[in-house]
Design goal:
The protein contains 15 helices and 5 strands. The chain has 334 residues and is mainly α. A 3-stranded antiparallel beta sheet has the order 3-5-4. Strands 1-2 form a two-stranded antiparallel ribbon. The longest helix has 35 residues. 28% of the residues are buried.
Length: 334
């Protein structure tokens, strides 16, 4: 089958998962990335076609994500954390911000604060700088040795990796993103190739408010992490369900093109069909089908050509016209 017109290749599924992880992890911190640029940086590393110019920022994020996935057996070290931190904050884009890149935070207290300046609410305060090195050394040593601890369930360990690192908060910025990268690394060590399939950051993003609430609650309760572990296991469960739906979509798309790839469709029709086949609950514009005007927007053809192309797809059994609509009729994949 021609994969340009057909089913979702394994590399495409991996690219989509890694992209979702990067975009979601940054969005948790309130940062919106250029998705096309990040996709191109990831595609370059996966040997897939690159369609958009990349930036130092997208290159660094892609490098971090692919190292997490591909260098699972590499031991964790302080130098590795410094390198990852550098990936998050390239000199070309952060040279004017006061961030200690690739080094630990300074002597000033590390606090998460909200509210008025004269009456602030302190949600969290990290360990003081004087004990930071020893705390981090202990965490790194535990990260390596705990992999062999058969008395601890692997997912409990992954949950503790996330909580412990984000509580230490060793850097000026980027602690949340590095905590999620370490979580993916720990998950990959426990379950081979899991980070190629699951996007924990996506579920965390969708439940960001409760994510911060449960972290704060546990950090203020003498580090009783029971509620955090319960929350995290739910996160893993939801991520698995999301992945299962992705696989179902992939199988459906493969079967669709296996049946229809010899129809001699135009490139515009193939592009639109793939857009519809890939649509999900996050793609509201195409989840409920496509209209002639949307077809025109995607393919850059005239309105008359769009209408004719859609009519041809109906005759060929690829699309069906949805009830109602009149001039704004919509079409969906059969």
């Amino acid at each position: 089958m021609d994969m340009a017109a057909g089913g979702l290749a394994a590399e495409d599924l991996l690219l989509d998962t890694l992209l979702q992880n990067i975009l979601s992890s940054s969005a948790i911190e309130g940062e919106k990335l250029n998705a096309d640029s990040v996709r191109s940086s990831l595609a370059k590393r996966l040997g897939l076609p690159v369609n958009t110019a990349t930036t130092d920022r997208s290159e660094g994020l892609a490098q971090l994500m692919t190292e997490v996935v591909e260098q699972v057996e590499e031991p964790l070290s302080l130098q590795r954390l410094f390198q990852w931190h550098g990936y998050l904050f390239p000199d070309s884009e952060y040279s004017f911000q006061k961030i200690r890149v690739g080094e630990l935070r300074g002597e000033e207290p590390m606090q998460v604060i909200s509210g008025r300046l004269d009456r602030p609410t302190i949600h969290f305060e990290a360990p003081p700088r004087s004990i930071l090195e020893s705390e981090l050394d202990e965490f790194i040593a535990w990260f390596e040795t705990s992999q062999k601890d058969e008395s601890m369930h692997a997912l409990i360990r992954v949950a503790l990796v996330h909580f412990w690192f984000i509580t230490i908060h060793p850097f000026d910025d980027g602690n949340g993103r590095l905590a999620r990268a370490l979580t993916d690394l720990a998950l990959g060590k426990a379950y081979a190739n899991s980070t190629r399939l699951l996007s924990l950051s996506l579920w965390i993003l969708e439940n960001r408010k409760s994510y911060y609430e449960v972290l704060e609650s546990c950090q203020k309760s003498n580090l009783d992490v029971t509620s955090w572990i319960t929350w995290f296991l739910q996160c893993v469960s939801e991520s698995i369900e999301y992945f299962k739906k992705q696989i179902e979509r992939s199988i459906f798309k493969t079967r669709f093109w296996k049946k229809n790839f010899e129809l001699g469709l135009r490139q515009e029709q193939i592009k639109v069909l793939n857009r519809l086949l890939d649509a999900n609950k996050d793609d509201k514009e195409y989840e409920l089908g496509i209209s002639a005007s949307q077809y025109q927007k995607v393919t850059k053809v005239s309105k008359a050509t769009a209408t004719r192309h859609l009519a041809d797809l109906v005759k060929l059994g690829c699309l069906e016209k949805m009830p109602g609509g009149g001039r704004s009729s919509r079409y969906k994949v059969i």
